[in-house]
Design a protein that fits this description.
homodimer, about 110 residues, mainly beta, 6-stranded antiparallel sheet, 4-stranded antiparallel sheet, about 0% helix, globular
Chain lengths: ~110, ~110
Amino acid sequence: MILDFSKMEVTVLKNFKGGAKEMFVKMFADDKNKIMLSVLKPGASIGYHKHENNCEIIFMIKGNAMVNYDNETLRLNNGQAFYCPMGHSHDLVNDTEDEIMFFAVVPELAQ
Amino acid sequence: MILDFSKMEVTVLKNFKGGAKEMFVKMFADDKNKIMLSVLKPGASIGYHKHENNCEIIFMIKGNAMVNYDNETLRLNNGQAFYCPMGHSHDLVNDTEDEIMFFAVVPELAQ
């Protein structure tokens, strides 16, 4: 099925996972996957959290962000992906002066 | 972890899943997910196949493509995603005059 984000409603999540400011997200979800197109404005972030029973794959469409992944601080640039396997932790921080946009998938995995 | 596609080797897959011409793919894979950045030139395609035990999520980065999904012919435009849940079938056909580029995730799902 086609997921046309231009026709999806925007959900505003305040302090998502304990992060700063707001995340603007368009999401499709079933029992197997969450599929999202999200925007973080300058200074906004997704808080640090652990993927206990699933994982996350992010593709950076616009801008770049700081990612703390386990004990490492990384830079996620436009055109790159970030992968957080099950059992690992991360955040996503827009520490830049521009809005960032990213595509993300959170699959419920085979154990 | 960061997946920097600009530093990954390109694999050329001829007639992928029975499709036409070649697919150029940069891939990261572990036992849970395949994460890919792929290019199809005009006339190239991924053949029609069924996702028996996994699923696929595609985000179209550049260009647009025809997708046959079960018994329906769809258009996947730039900025849209395509989702093929487990048990469903699809192809991906570059029937345009321009190269297309897309990001794809194939997770091994909880049953």
